[in-house]
Design a protein that fits this description.
Strand order of the largest sheet: 1-2
Mean pLDDT: 79
Oligomer: single chain
Structural class: alpha+beta
Radius of gyration: 14 Å
Distance between the termini: 43 Å
Number of domains: 1
Largest sheet: 2 strands, antiparallel
Low-confidence stretches: none
Shape: flat
């Protein structure tokens, strides 16, 4: 997979932005069909909702 400078920057930016809220993985294979996603974000479950 060829990466452009803006692609690398966007992935690093999103990883830094989303990491306090959950798990962030870059360049991951997903199993719908064999495809790859640039950024996969899984929010951390919380027991209380901020109101």
């Amino acid at each position: 997979m060829t990466q452009q400078p803006h692609d690398k920057f966007a992935k690093q930016f999103l990883e830094e932005l989303l990491s306090p809220f959950g798990e962030v993985k870059t360049n991951r294979e997903v199993t719908d069909e064999t495809r790859f996603v640039d950024v996969l974000f899984s929010p951390t479950p919380t027991s209380a909702v901020d109101a």
